[in-house]
Design a protein that fits this description.
Blueprint: H1 2-20, H2 24-30, H3 35-45, H4 58-73, E1 77-78, E2 85-102, E3 105-107, E4 113-115, E5 122-131, E6 137-138, E7 142-143, E8 154-158, H5 178-187, E9 192-197, E10 223-228, H6 229-236, H7 243-248, E11 256-281, E12 286-296, E13 302-303, E14 307-308, H8 312-334, E15 341-348, H9 351-354, H10 356-363, E16 372-378, E17 397-401, H11 410-422, E18 425-427, H12 445-450, E19 455-459, H13 478-497
Parallel strand pairs: 5-8, 8-9, 9-10, 12-15, 12-16, 16-19, 17-18
Antiparallel strand pairs: 1-11, 2-3, 2-11, 4-10, 5-11, 6-7, 11-15, 13-14, 17-19
Helix pairs in contact: 2-8, 3-8, 3-13, 8-13, 11-13
């Protein structure tokens, strides 16, 4: 047994030595990634003319045009069947009208009722209403729907919760929250809901929703309105002044009440489209396998039409990294050292809205995800984060996130590449599943991870200018940004040229709520 181990060690030594030896072609190509070039690109991407690159916006389109032109100038193949763009649709609803009629009398919008956000267009009439108290369903702790049949019915519930009840869960998923109560009614087959609130009259709510990727839904949310105590009192036959107190005391019976109620809501839906920008460098003997390198080129736009959120670090820095990595790999191919696997360079939009662009790609991949060995995602590599402001390694670190999650190959390769070429401090603090920031779930790599693709997320950490108008290109540390981009290049080089695709031998673990 000992002899076998010694023989194995001897046989493995040349491979290890070879793996740790610098590839001169790689270092020559990486040297084309310079602070000067990055500065030139970033001052365009994070310029005033781009207006913060909101999704959607004219500034976002200007940035996409700049990225596409760069890919074209390098001679890269359009990444989406002859096009550098992968377009996806967005939807925005605007309310046209809403009305609520109780027993033949129309009540006033904003004074007596408001539509619940997310309503679909509908006109509904009911001859009775089921009052279900607070409408809370919380396992064995509380069930306000006990002995009530609400299937196909209009349900009336009150805001708040009884004094003797403590929810089993807090936050967005709490059974006592609006979403929890809406879901409880929906799961029991309710057709619509009225929720009683004390704070009427109200200011007019927004008649338009935000842009959304979800124009088509697998299931509709529950239709409904919020209503005043005066409106609820008309249904329940109670005194409006004492209604909420009586509900809290349990003095209003949970049962079916006869009342003619008419609910109407109409809207129009606007559509637009935005794009991911993709370019492909074809590989050699493994060209049907892929390394994907991503960054999001959007940011959060401007406020009040005057204050621009430039997004130089977030994520102009990552976008610039993509441009420079593309050029470095093209230069290597010109020198006869093209990658074995094909490399997809992709800048995605809509990250700030909810990882839209990467989600769309992961659900409509141009190249097979089972043949995608890795996604290397670059999101903020141009600054020194809060935790390194006073650290001696402040100009020689990067956070590495996710390399321990899906493949046992990945962390070892990351360390080997770094020790061979970059010799940076790789901080894996945010790999901890208990980290409250949950950065692993907050950038575009996550949509690849959900599909089983191993990922690495390169990140410098947040800083005082994060998501502020002051995230400008003059505050970028360009030499550090170039060094981080070179580390990504060397890692991509290794992924593109190694014999085997990365193993997928670890299960994706999600915290509660994801």
């Amino acid at each position: 047994m000992i002899k076998k181990i010694i023989v194995c060690l001897i046989l493995s030594m040349p491979l290890t030595a070879a793996a740790q030896k610098k590839d001169k072609s790689a270092t020559k190509a990486a040297a084309t990634i310079t602070a000067e070039d990055m500065k030139k690109h970033l001052y365009v991407i994070a310029s005033k003319e781009m207006e913060g690159r909101d999704t959607p916006s004219p500034g976002l389109e200007k940035a996409a045009n700049y990225i596409e032109e760069h890919f074209r100038s390098l001679g890269l193949t359009p990444g989406n069947n002859g096009s550098y763009r992968q377009y996806y649709p967005l939807y925005k609803d605007s309310m046209q009208d809403a009305s609520l009629v109780i027993n033949g009398k129309k009540v006033e919008l904003n004074a007596d009722f408001q539509p619940i956000p997310g309503n679909y267009a509908a006109g509904l009439r009911f001859s009775e209403v089921v009052f279900a108290g607070y409408g809370i369903s919380d396992g064995n702790k509380r069930n306000d729907y006990k002995d009530l049949n609400i299937a196909g019915k209009l349900v009336l519930i009150a805001d708040g919760m009884p004094a003797d009840y403590k929810p089993s869960q807090q936050g967005f998923s709490s059974p006592s929250g609006v979403t929890g109560r809406m879901n409880a009614a929906l799961s029991r087959g309710a057709s619509a809901v009225l929720m009683i609130y004390n704070n009427f009259p109200r200011k007019g709510g927004s008649v338009s929703s935000n842009w959304s990727l979800n124009g088509f839904k697998a299931t509709q949310s529950l239709f409904g309105f919020t209503i005043s105590t005066e409106t609820a009192a008309k249904i329940l036959g109670e005194d409006a002044k004492t209604l909420m107190d009586k509900i809290k005391e349990g003095a209003v019976a949970t049962k079916t009440y006869k009342s003619e109620v008419e609910l109407n809501y109409s809207k129009i839906t606007k559509t637009t489209q935005v794009s991911n920008v993709l370019a492909l460098l074809e590989g050699t003997d493994k060209k049907d396998e892929y390394v994907v390198i991503t960054a999001h080129y959007d940011h959060i736009g401007k406020r009040n039409d005057t204050t621009i959120y430039y997004g130089a670090d977030d994520d102009g820095s990552g976008t610039t990294g993509i441009l420079e990595l593309a050029q470095a790999f093209v230069e290597a191919k010109k020198a006869g050292k093209g990658p074995r696997r094909s490399i997809l360079f992709m800048t995605v939009s809509g990250e700030e809205k909810g990882l839209w662009g990467s989600r769309y790609y992961s659900e409509h991949p141009v190249y097979p995800l089972d043949k995608t060995t890795v996604d290397l995602n670059i999101d903020m590599i141009g600054r020194i984060g809060n935790e390194y402001m006073k650290n001696k390694d402040s100009a020689n670190y990067v956070y590495i996130i996710g390399d321990d999650k899906l493949s046992t190959d990945l962390a070892a390769i990351t360390d080997q590449v770094n020790s061979t070429y970059s010799k940076m401090k790789l901080d894996r603090k945010y790999n901890d599943p208990k980290d409250p920031n949950r950065f692993y779930f907050r950038s575009d790599h996550y949509n690849f991870a959900e599909k089983g693709v191993p990922i690495i997320f390169y990140f410098n950490g947040v800083h005082p200018d994060y998501h502020r108008p002051t995230d400008t290109p003059d505050k970028i540390n360009y030499p550090l940004m170039a060094k981080r981009a070179q580390l990504v290049f060397y890692t991509a080089w290794e992924m593109a040229n190694r014999n085997d695709m990365l193993k997928r031998d670890l299960k994706l673990e999600k915290p509660k709520g994801f």
